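Lecture 7 notes: from sequence to structure.
We start with the chain below.
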Amino acid sequence: MTPRALDPLVTGYLAYGRAVRRLAPRTLIDMQCTFTRLAVYGRLHHPEIALYQWRLDDYLRWIEHERQAGQALRSIAKELSHLRGFLAYAWRNGRTDRNVLDGFQLQDAARPAAPPVLTIPDMTHLVAACARRTPLERRDRLIVLLLYGGGLRTGEVCGLDLGDVDRERQELLIRHAKGDVDRRVPVPPGVWTELLAFLADRGRRPGALLRTAATRRRIDAGAVCAVVTITTARAGLPAGITPRTLRHTFATHLMDRGVPLDVIASLLGHRSPRESGVYLHALPARETAAVDRLSAAVTP
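Predicted structure tokens for the same chain:
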């Protein structure tokens, strides 16, 4: 699915958020991912009904679908916030007579869930599901590899230019990342080989590294989300995997291999290791192992 598959009213709402509300780029990326996921769900469950025409029961079933897919309640709550804003926009434009999600909130007193991550076998299946017969397939495969192999954010993948590929150092330069700070990301050998093959297709014309097939313009967040969603389905993995899931998986797998937290923070572009500490929750056995080591040290 491409961003063009979104309902025209959704596209108008995103444009309104960009031009009138002056929403932050990260917020717009999150919103586009939400509506892309909803479009995929809607095509399966409500193919004849526009998103703004769903009933409250339809949205409740979608929430349950997200929970069953492993989405954290915090993520679902953010998606509901995007939906409430969209339905208010639809109401102001006369497309619906009321906002059925007005005032609707999710409440959960439990400890925040750890970020969802994939196992090594899951990632093997996901990468294997990425074909590489055509230039477009090689582009989509590279998107998945950069999200996981480099731990890049969606916006960082979209923002890459040809000039950001450092062939001598085998690195990517991430410009104006979170906090408007540049950083360099080393590219693993396997991903680097795929990147070089892609560059042979792309040619030397400067500009966006990853471009659309039809217009040759820079890809956007909706396209990246669509690639992950379609590849996930092709691999037979549960629904609900997003570009951010692959970034979380990158960090968790590094931590599982004993990479220091400050190194992981640097690779992810976090301002401090404290931001990366959330990934410790995904490794409950690590705490037990640490205590076991301490016990061995103090045992006579």
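Points to note: The longest strand covers residues 171-174. The chain has two domains: 3-92, 120-282.
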